[in-house]
Amino acid sequence: MKTATKPENYQPQQNCLQDKVILITGATGGFGKALSLTYAAAGATVILLGKTIRYLENLYDEIENAGYPTPAIYPLNLEGATEKDYYDMAENIGKEFGRLDGLVHAAAQLGAPTPFEHSDTENWYKVMQVNLNGPYMLTKHCIPLLKQSAHGSLLFMTDDKFGAYWDAYAISKHAINGMMQTLAAEYAGSQLQVNCLNPGPSKTALHIRAYPASSKNAGLPEPALYKDLFLYLMSNELDQSGVCFTP
Fold first, then answer.
1. How far apart are CA 5 and CA 223, in angstroms?
2. Where are the domains of the chain?
3. Which of 121, 137, 205, 241 is 20–30 Å from 213 (CA)?
4. According to the CATH classification, is domain 2-245 in 3.40.50.720?
5. Residue positions annotated with a catalytic role
6. pTM score
7. Contact 173, 161 (CB under 8 A)
8. pLDDT surpasses 90 at 94
9. Across residues 12-22, what is the average pLDDT?
């Protein structure tokens, strides 16, 4: 898989995402919240998808109080969501907005890293539902909305926690990488750009749960430090597809 970084000369302009409509899953998580605030500050209307209404409402208020475009809230627990839930969501977004300019899959579940022979089947299904099946079904039903955009961007958050003992989490991320490459090939030459973002170790609850005893946790970079890269990946300047971006 090809890797890339944002162009060195990329300088986001104020309101560079003006009037764009961007759906973000896991919107109240470490990266989800940073993405949501970054895109709202740049003029986008963000659709905040998450499972906890109180957290979504708090983020909604933070965006509105900052004077950014009024966001939308879509509560949904990906762990138990059915295909009809995703179909209905896409239908509702279509009726409300008519299109999507961006879709970011930031929701993730770590599960319980363990030797493969001791893997818990119930946990496996939960991780796959959030990390792989959910993105598959949501993307499937939102592609017609993304195709309505003059410059659509579909972005999958991925990770480099591969190798021994990462169990369902690592395998789900391998599959996400493959899904991205398949979609990028299918929509090559179109107005829809499909990519992955691998930010590396960052100060998020998920990463700290993965390495709870690490002495490096306090010095990890905050997700908000990558805001210029976030903006590039939703901007009209993005002209690459089938790539895994890193900071």
1. 16
2. 2-245
3. 121
4. yes
5. 169
6. 0.95
7. yes
8. yes
9. 96
pLDDT recorded at residue 163: 84
End-to-end CA distance of the chain: 16
User: What pLDDT is stored for residue 223 in this prediction?
Assistant: 95
Give the Å distances, CA to CA, from 93 to 72, 129, 171, 206, 241: 10, 22, 31, 29, 25
Q: What is the pLDDT of residue 162?
A: 78
Q: Which tokens is 157 given?
A: 């958050």
Q: Write out the DSSP string of the chain.
A: -EEE---TT--PPTTTTTT-EEEEETTTSHHHHHHHHHHHHTT-EEEEEES-HHHHHHHHHHHHHTTPPP-EEEE--TTT--HHHHHHHHHHHHHHHS--SEEEE----------GGG--HHHHHHHHIIIIIHHHHHHHHHHHHHTTSSSEEEEEE-----STT-HHHHHHHHHHHHHHHHHHHHTTTSSEEEEEE---S-S-HHHHHHSTT-TTGGGPPPGGGGHHHHHHTTSTT----SEEE--
Cα angle value 81/86/87 (rounded, 5°): 135
On the question of pLDDT at 50 being above 90, the answer is yes
How far is residue 228's CA from residue 11's CA, in Å, rounded to a whole number? 8
Q: What angle do CA 50, 52, 54 make, to 5 degrees?
A: 120
